[in-house]
Design a protein that fits this description.
The complex is a heterodimer of chains A (about 280) and B (about 270). Chain A has about 280 residues and is mainly alpha-helical. Chain A has helices at about 1-5, 5-10, 15-40, 40-65, 65-90, 95-120, 120-130, 135-165, 170-175, 180-205, 205-215, 225-250, 250-270, 275-280. Chain A is globular and about 55 Å long. In chain B, a hairpin with a 2-residue loop joins strand 9 (about 225-230) and strand 10 (about 235-240). Classes of the chains: A mainly alpha (about 280), B alpha/beta (about 270).
């Protein structure tokens, strides 16, 4: 038992680091993901995650395969795309989701092009699918820092942010600061996607955020319990995903997301708000 | 449901260019030559109207007549292209606004207590906890809307009528001198409509100005003493019995038809 569940992590430093990175990631992504789902912005999160790629690619060209450089570039470009897509949907007949889809396809193409022409195929795979096993000390500090920052900011603006999620018109009337909280929230989403990007790559960065969040939605009925449960699911997927990838020699990113997906499917069927219970008519 | 993010370069503090506030004097809204245009067509044109508290107004009219747009313009959500709105005796943040119910997520994971507590947001602010007094007020408000034992109930367990009662409890807690209601009785059962109408009448007796957008003309005739009949270019206002005549209704409907035909030929 212990050999199976614990020894890998005591034996290998890189696995320990990866586990810590997943833990930090889960604590930040859990709550942010829940808010993203509650605001019905999952699609936007998807677009944002992909839009990080060209920025990360630029960081890669400047600073090589280091998370701080790629993260900083990714954050800037991701945020720029969010701004631009908001602007486009404001001035044209396109909906926000449509303009986001357009933008992320373009940025994905630019990103892949930049890396393939300047780097190797392996670099491209790393950036697209993540390298949680290659997390170094600086990256770990960065992920932990982003998580701490996220949790502090969420604690500060919890009440108005939640009101904004539920009824944005209401907050707009009573305080007039609605767009400000929305703006802060977008910053948090982008930051967390950047830190998830190292572990899971741009293609699956959102997985750590969305899958635990939608799973927890099927179990809990209060925002605080959603936050806790979502973080817990994310931690569990991180731990078991790493274990799976170690024992079966699977790539780590997809293993983590697969476990998160498994939790989602189980929740979908057995959770209090899942298919079975709802069929029986129990509320 | 309006969760689409507002543009980010917009100033954080919303400005109300067309709305002027004069803090002195009795509570009133003065609308002069107001026109609102969407990019392709005009919704409201040259509306002049005056509301004074205490009174109870219904804004009625055919679909797409600009009723909700008028409320949104008064709230500063929608820019006007022409005209002036003057608030006497209150400022835009003293307005309590009930959006159409379909704009809200009825499965949002909040309890009834959490939801009505939002009504005290201006008093409590971002960080402070709710005092014992405020909690008592909230409980009292819940019994006022007939949901006294529901404080811990999650929103998703409520019926449409109960959900609307919760939103009315929030309005009561906001304690605003001016209240805008956008289709408050859509998808609400008859018993609840009766109870909520009683609440609205109490608000008017307390000296507030209540303006409700309604499409159900029977309801307007039964409960609302004053009506603004709005249909694009055409509008009349005054005591309900004089406004909702056959002749006016015919003109309202033909005005909005005419507009629809214009749109079709665009």
């Amino acid at each position: 038992m212990i050999d199976f569940f614990i020894t890998p992590f005591t034996d290998y430093v890189f696995l320990r680091r990866a586990l810590m990175a997943c833990l930090a990631l889960a604590l930040g992504c859990g709550p942010v993901g829940v808010l993203l789902v509650l605001r019905r912005m999952s699609l936007m999160g998807d677009a944002l995650a992909h839009a990080i790629l060209p920025g990360a690619a630029f960081g890669f060209l400047v600073g090589g395969l280091s998370l701080p450089a790629m993260g900083f570039g990714g954050f800037l470009v991701g945020f720029l795309v969010a701004l631009l897509a908001g602007a486009i949907s404001r001035f044209t007949i396109l909906n926000e989701d449509a303009s986001f889809a357009g933008f992320y396809l373009i940025s994905l193409a630019i990103g892949v092009l930049m890396i393939s022409t300047q780097g190797t195929q392996v670099d491209l795979m790393h950036i697209l699918f993540g390298t949680v096993l290659a997390v170094d000390k600086i990256s770990l500090i960065m992920v932990a820092g982003i998580t701490s920052f996220t949790l502090c900011v969420l604690a500060l603006i919890y009440r108005p942010l939640l009101i904004e999620c539920f009824d944005s018109g209401f907050l707009r009337v009573v305080s007039g600061w609605g767009s400000f909280y929305h703006f802060i929230f977008l910053v948090l989403v982008t930051l967390n996607l950047v830190s998830a990007f190292q572990a899971l790559g741009t293609l699956m960065a959102l997985g750590m955020m969305m899958l635990p969040a939608v799973s927890s939605r099927l179990w809990a009925r209060h925002v605080w319990s959603l936050f806790l449960l979502s973080s817990f699911f994310a931690i569990a997927s991180g731990y078991f995903g790493l274990l799976l990838s170690y024992h079966l020699e699977w790539p780590s990113g997809p293993s983590i997301i697969l476990i998160a997906g498994l939790i989602y499917v189980i929740s979908l069927i057995f959770a209090p708000f899942g298919i079975l219970k709802q069929q029986q008519g129990i509320d | 449901m309006d969760h689409s993010p507002s543009p980010f370069w917009k100033p954080f503090k919303e400005k109300h260019w067309t709305i002027r506030c004069l803090p002195q004097g009795p509570i009133a809204i003065d609308i002069k030559h107001l026109s609102v245009k969407y990019p392709k067509n005009s919704v409201i044109s040259n509306l002049t109207c005056h509301f004074t508290a205490p009174s109870l107004w219904a804004i009625a009219g055919p679909n797409g007549a600009g009723k909700s747009t008028l409320l949104k313009t008064l709230l500063g959500f929608q820019k006007s292209s022409q005209g002036k709105i003057t608030f006497h005796g209150f400022c835009p943040c003293d307005v309590a606004y009930l959006a159409q119910q379909n704009q809200l997520d009825r499965k949002f994971p909040l309890t009834v207590g959490d939801t009505i507590a939002m009504g005290l947001f201006r008093e409590v602010g971002i960080f402070r906890r709710y005092t014992k007094e405020q909690q008592d007020t909230m409980q009292a408000t819940l019994s006022q809307v007939g949901l006294s034992s529901f404080a811990k109930t999650p929103l998703q367990a409520l019926s449409g009528g109960q959900f609307q009662r919760v939103l009315f409890a929030r309005l009561i807690l906001q304690n605003a001198p001016v209240i805008f209601l956008d289709e408050p009785f859509t998808g609400v059962d008859g018993r609840t409509i009766e109870d909520l109408m009683k609440l609205i009448h109490v608000w008017v007796q307390e000296g507030r100005l209540v303006i409700a957008v309604l499409h159900d003309l029977d309801l307007v005739q039964d409960h609302f003493p004053q009506t603004l009949l709005l249909a694009r270019q055409f509008y009349t206002r005054g005591p309900t019995a004089q406004v909702l005549t056959k002749e006016n209704m015919r003109r309202a409907i033909s005005a909005s038809r005419e507009w629809e035909d214009n749109v079709r030929t665009l």
